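Input record (one chain):
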Amino acid sequence: MNQDSFSLCAAVRSLRVSFGGRRVLHGVDADFPARKVTVLLGRSGSGKTTLLRALNRLNECFEDCGTSGDVRVALGGRLLPVEGPDAPSLPRLRRAAGMVFQTPNPLPMSIRRNITLPLSLALEKKLSRDREKLEAIVRERLLEVGLWDEVADRLDAPAASLSGGQQQRLCLARALALDPELLLLDEPTASLDRAAAHTIEELILSFKGRRSVILVSHSLRQARKLADSALVLSDGRIVRRLSAEALRGSVEDEDLFLDYAGPDGCRGCLPRLP
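The corresponding structure, as predicted from the sequence alone:
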């Protein structure tokens, strides 16, 4: 694996993950292009979220998790292992690989504090006390997610007072506060109504060419709209690798795509590419 490649934001080799002795990922190999949107597609239980969480070691939150293989994330222009003597500290890794979850999870505090708290915890104390700089970052990130005009006059209001879609955009702004090199999105529109989901999708489109995004989705429609490329998982394995062009032209029906009955009759098993 080329550790100095500027073309990748992350890469995994022979990744195996199990929980309580049950294997969830089976020797996964994948490269994730930098400044592109890569979508992880598959049915529930196919291993999409487990693969995503391997990139910032969130699987370790589960005591019965076992992991082997080589997982690397771009930091400062180099692909560094997430574990081992050459790995960054866990706080640095998670600052570099910001994450947004399926259900909005704003901190139980003000809108402003949801963004300034991560900054205060991560930055040097002198900088964290620079109120003018902090306020500038709050405005910049809320502008980036299209939330500034909606909340500029109530930044000290509780984050819980926002709608579900607004809360998810606030979570996205919080993840962006530290300017991560990689953005991990775990079905960020799954709990939102259609209008709020559309807003999040348009934001993801706006990241293309300037931010590296890995997005978990079970929606072929969404993947076709957002992806520069897609990896399809089934039963803990990558069974298909698709360019944007192939993704848009490969399958007519989403249910057929995700419920393909493979040669062995196993539903959910998509055909392997040569």
